């Protein structure tokens, strides 16, 4: 689980998508955005906002729950992984996580499926967002390592 960081209140799904869109222009090749939280907290909504921020506002961004990964042509290229259905951390390599980070960046739902040390699979520059219930909305706890320690200031958090 990521270490505690800055907490943002997200009043609805639109606010969650806007947070993703704010993250998008800060992403660089080799970087990862890790999305934590229970089912129904808005991980896919945040990922959708981020991907639309890199592609087009009308980009079709389905949840990769069943396909496990969706690739998008953007600058940088982005891969959206949903690891919920993985049974072994090694399966992440089989679905192209290494290649995605070699060529672009990755947004990963359920990164805890990478095992006890997700950092072993990922580059040194990672943003973690943990979503949780907060009244009628959500809260996002945002923290970063590597370049994201500085980039968080660009998010105004």
Walk me through what this model shows.
It is a single chain. This protein has five helices and seven strands. By secondary structure, it is α/β, with parallel strands linked by helices. The protein has a seven-stranded mixed sheet, sandwiched between helices. A hairpin with a 2-residue loop joins strand 6 (126-134) and strand 7 (137-145). The longest helix is centred in the N-terminal third of the chain and has 12 residues, at 43-54. The chain is globular, with a radius of gyration of 14 Å.
pLDDT < 50 stretches: none
Percent strand equals 25-35%
| Cα gyration radius (Å) | 14 Å
Q: Give, in spatial order, the strands making up the sheet with the most strands.
A: 1-7-6-2-5-4-3
Key descriptive features of the protein:
alpha/beta; about 160 residues; seven-stranded mixed β-sheet; globular; about 25% helix; 7 strands
What's the quick description here?
The chain has helices spanning 13-23, 43-54, 91-94, 97-103, 148-151; strands at 6-10, 32-36, 69-72, 78-82, 105-109, 126-134, 137-145. The protein is an alpha/beta fold and 157 residues long. The two termini are 20 Å apart.
């Amino acid at each position: 689980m990521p270490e505690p960081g800055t907490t943002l209140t997200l009043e609805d799904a639109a606010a969650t998508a806007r947070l993703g869109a704010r993250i998008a222009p800060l992403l660089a090749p080799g970087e990862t955005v890790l999305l934590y939280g229970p089912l129904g907290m808005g991980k896919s909504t945040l990922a959708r906002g981020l991907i639309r921020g890199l592609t087009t506002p009308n980009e079709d961004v389905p949840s990769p729950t069943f396909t496990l990964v969706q690739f998008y042509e953007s600058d940088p290229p982005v891969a959206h992984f949903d690891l919920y259905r993985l049974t072994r951390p090694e399966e992440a390599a089989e679905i192209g996580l290494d290649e995605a980070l070699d060529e672009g960046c990755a947004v990963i739902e359920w990164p805890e499926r990478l095992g006890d040390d997700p950092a072993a699979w990922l580059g040194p520059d990672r943003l973690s967002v943990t979503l949780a219930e907060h009244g009628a909305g959500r809260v996002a706890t945002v923290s970063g390592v590597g370049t994201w320690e500085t980039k968080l200031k660009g998010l105004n958090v």
